[in-house]
Structures are given as structure tokens and as C-alpha cells.
Amino acid sequence: MEINKSINTKINDVDFNSVRFGEIFTDHMFECNFKNGEWESPIIKPYSPLKLDPSTHVFHYGQAIFEGMKGYKDKNDQVWLFRPKDNYERLKKSCIRMHIPVLPEEYFFEGLNKLVSIDKDWVPKELGSSMYIRPFVFSSSAMLAASPSLDYKFLIICSPGGAYYSKSLSVYVEDKFSRAAPGGAGYAKAAGNYGASFYPISLAVSKGFDQIVWTDSSTHQKIEEVGTMSIMFRIKDKLITPKTSDTILDGVSRKTVIQIARDLGIDVEERDITINELISEHRNGNLKEIFGCGTAVVISKISSFGYKEDKFELEEIKENYADRLKESIINIQQNVSEDLHGWRYKILD
Ligand SMILES: Cc1ncc(COP(=O)(O)O)c(C=O)c1O
User: Fold this and answer.
1) Which CATH fold would you assign to the domain 169-333?
2) Residue 76, class by beta-carbon neighbours within 10 Å (0-12 exposed, 13-18 middle, 19+ buried)?
């Protein structure tokens, strides 16, 4: 792989205490182009704008997918990734669904390793902080034919982040719009899934909520996800989350939370859960916690939910699962506690 290092670093201009998610990028990026039916040799080069023809396929037909992962530093300055193989496997599924050629696994891991290693000074060290890593691929042929692109660009860019302390969310259980439908691309991290979500989310925000709880597209009764997170409910002392399907993203954090909860002796069920069940368990006093989980925030508590004209508040409980699970996950990610499941991936210099 060709490596073309930047002469200057931007790192001294960055105030790491005030960086906001995804606004500052590190000195380098990884790029690999698909041309004439094959992936060319990849390159790491200084982070810089792309020059694209106005007819570039992705602007018109949206053949684009992405991944989201993080790099963490331990107290000895060793950098780690968390479950990157799961991200690669999901990337493959997303590519296949969007008819995008799959970047070979060795290019992905070599690129990740080298890029994160070159920009390792950008990975913050404070417990709970990390560097966000965004691999993505898009259709890059300059053509307006509504058929699959012939060329593709695969890039990885990185963005440092501070410890992300999220406030509890108030969410609206959606009864009209859908994020995904059976047979669609909901299980893929396809760019268009996100583009199509912004309007319904903005309507929920205008009603005073922070996010949407997505429900199934035919009955709007079954709970699927919350915003860009997997969703978990604690009913009495059991943790319940919807099963993955072609309308639900197979979240890496979701799998992690399920495993750690089981390790902690918490009973976990993956099954359908409807809004009616939630409301009735809330009325009975059994609905103790709701939280979302995803790479960006790890775990985000939900303190109230709205459905049609009603709003339901949850009392914060002291011995909550959300804090316990979040702490356990961060400790594994940052090499504070033992990695029983082999989830950490060491970045080599
Ligand atoms: C729709 C959706 N669900 C769930 C998740 C959480 O997935 P992960 O835990 O792999 O970040 C994401 C995050 O990207 C998402 O976009």
C-alpha cells in the first residue's frame, strides 16, 4: 500500500475539550478505487477534498453505504479497535444489498491498521473518549444511466471525539413513517436509510421529542430501533430487545450489550415487543428502563416516550442496567478489564 504522509499536522489547532462529533478530521485518509472490474492498490494520503464530476452516480442514485467504529487508547498509549471484524461482515452485507463490490478483507484491515497507527496521536486517552472511524463506499462513475455504477470509491476517514455524555432522551413512537420495510435495505447501513429519516425525525423534534422509535412498516405496533441505535427495555428484571430482521440493523453494540448482560447474570430475551405491551407494562409499574445502544454513544438512556397524544415518563432508578452495561463496555474497549470474548483488536505500529 502506498503511504503518502502529510508534511504538517493540524493536531495543534484542535481543542480536544470542545470537539463536536464528526466536525474535525485527522491528518490522513485511506482511499481505494474500484475500476475496470477490480479494486486498485489502496493509498493512505493527507485528508483532502475529493474532486467529483457533477454527474457522479452517487449524487443521483445514492449507491452508498458506510460503517461506524471507534479507536480507543489505553493508559499505556496502546490503541485498540473494538470488534472490527463485525463491522467488516456488516459492510459486506450492506455492499451486497446495494450492489456494490466488496473491498477485500485484507485491504480493509491493512488500511484500518495503517491509518489508525499513522494518526494515533489523535486518539484521546481519557476514559470514555475515542476516535470515530468512518469507512464508506460510494458509486463514482460519471454517468446518469439509472443502472449500477461501474466505478466505486472506498474511503476511511477519522474524527477525534471527547467523552460523550449524553442526556436522557425523550422519544416518540412513530405511527406513520417507516425507516425500513420487509424486502428493503433496513439491515444495510445504506446512506439513503439515513437521508429518509431526517424528515420524520424533524417532525418529532418539532413536537418536543429528541428522537423517533421506529416501528414495523405494516402495523406500526412492533418496536424496531430508536434513531440510529438498537433499543433495549428492562421489564421487571429482564432485558428485552427486538430480534434482528431485514428491517433492523444488526448492531455491534446490541450484540455486545446482550452478551455482557448475560455475563452479568441478567436474563435477556430477543423477541417482538409492541407499543401496547410497553404501555401496559408501564401502567403496571414493570417497565423500569429503556435505553438505546450504538457505537457513537455506547448507551443512551430514555426517560420518556410519546405515543399518539400520550406521554409516558420513566423514573430514573439508582441500580440501573444502563450505567452498569456502559461501564463494562467502556472498560473492555479501553483495556481496563479483561476481554473475555476476544473483542479487542490491537493496532500495530
Ligand atoms: C439504524 C441503526 N441501528 C443501530 C445502530 C447501532 O449499531 P452499532 O452498535 O453497530 O453502532 C446504528 C448505528 O450505526 C444504526 O444506524
Assistant:
1) D-amino Acid Aminotransferase; Chain A, domain 2 (3.20.10)
2) exposed
